[in-house]
Amino acid sequence: MDFSRGEVGDVSVSTRVKLIAVLVVVAAVIGLLIQTAVTKAATYYLTVGELYGQGAQAIGKEATVSGNIVGSTVQWDPSKRLLQFEMRDDAQSKPLPVVFHGDRPDDFSNDWPVVVTGKLNASGQFEASKLLIKCPSKYQAKEQTYTAAPSA
């Protein structure tokens, strides 16, 4: 074995350095992927008031908003699988009009808590891509998640 040429065993020092560099890069990529997954999983729900508080900055940005269904505003068109309703924080707050293309949830009643994910459009309507209904009875979540139908 010739140590003067930087060889240790059957693997040269430069090969070991390259291997260590590759392992460091792989570990960094894995760490970044884990951080991204954790960040996306830790979603913060905005209230309707907080969404309106963002003003024009909220338009076109993905958001998750929680509130209560205003039952008298629910409109369902089964032929188009189009659900429209309003949601609000409380009886005095400004309602947020929501449109959702997909299946209508079974448990869709007045004043039930709802969480929608989507984007606010320029006309002030929230275009939901996901809809989550929570069962208010006994304050235990009976979560039903619905995903928007693919666009034609």
TrEMBL record:
| UniProt main location, coarse | membrane
Gene Ontology biological process terms from the UniProt entry: cytochrome complex assembly; protein-heme linkage
The cross-references to Gene3D superfamilies, in alphabetical order and at most eight, read: Nucleic acid-binding proteins (2.40.50.140)
Subcellular localization is given as: Membrane
One function term, GO molecular function aspect = heme binding
What InterPro entries does the record tag this protein with?
CcmE, CcmE-like_sf, NA-bd_OB-fold
One Pfam short name: CcmE
Q: Which domain of life is it from?
A: Bacteria
Q: Which UniProt keywords apply?
A: Cytochrome c-type biogenesis, Heme, Iron, Membrane, Metal-binding, Transmembrane, Transmembrane helix
Looking at the UniProt record for this protein, which Gene Ontology cellular component terms does it annotate, in alphabetical order?
Answer: plasma membrane
Matching SUPFAM superfamilies: Heme chaperone CcmE (SSF82093)
The region annotated as signal peptide is none
The residue ranges crossing the membrane are 20-38
Protein name according to UniProt: Cytochrome c-type biogenesis protein CcmE
Q: What is the lineage of its organism?
A: Bacteria, Bacillati, Bacillota, Bacilli, Bacillales
